Amino acid sequence: MKKELGIPLGMERVAIPADAGDLPVPHFIDCFIHDAEDRAEAYGNQPGKGLFIPGDYRYAFQVIQWLLRSETVAKGVSFLEWGSGQGMVAILASLLGLKASGVEIDEKLVWESRELAARYDTLVEFEHGSYDPDSEDLEVVTAEGRDMVYVYPWPGEEAFFLQLFAGTAPAGALLMMCFGPEDIRLYQKKGD
């Protein structure tokens, strides 16, 4: 069994059914993922200062698809990807009809994500900034006013993101946190 984190007061874990990973992924989504991964390999370690780690994009797509099918979220809700890197999950959310954006500290990756979004004709806003309220000289983008947030934290940062989300998200908002391949956990901020 996977170890569970301490969940902050006012938040609850939302179960993702096992069959969410069986939802169909259209061929063009697989092509997009492969194309983006090829682009990442082409620029190697230049962006991200060695801090770029790809997530499980196919499963993230399936989880967002399940959230839409189960009517847990509706098309058009606001979606934010913290530490967006290439912007893969934000772009996938946009392709599924969400109003997506991303925030990334590495300016080269912000440009890469904008180019990738344009290549696939998606309307995603990517901002050079940080999610960390203690960041200096950068725009800080929290969960305030967001319906959904996605993050793939570095090991040991999971509790930080749960606290940040609990402290800045509106009631009812969802946090999708990736822990590795086919391990996305979903949390919801309870209503006041």
What does this structure look like?
The protein contains 5 helices and 8 strands; from the N terminus they run βααβαβαβββαββ. The chain is α/β, with parallel strands linked by helices and 192 residues long. It has one domain: Rossmann fold. An 8-stranded mixed beta sheet has the order 1-8-7-6-2-3-4-5, with helices on both faces. It is globular and about 45 Å long.
State the CATH architecture.
Answer: 3-Layer(aba) Sandwich
| Rg calculated over all Cα atoms | 16 Å
Find the CATH superfamily. Answer: Vaccinia Virus protein VP39
Number of domains: 1
Counting helices, strands and paired strands, the structural category is alpha/beta
Strand and helix layout:
Layout: E1 11-14, H1 27-43, H2 57-69, E2 78-82, H3 88-95, E3 99-104, H4 107-119, E4 125-130, E5 139-140, E6 148-151, H5 158-168, E7 174-180, E8 183-189
Parallel strand pairs: 2-3, 2-6, 3-4, 4-5, 6-7
Antiparallel strand pairs: 1-8, 7-8
Helix pairs in contact: 2-3
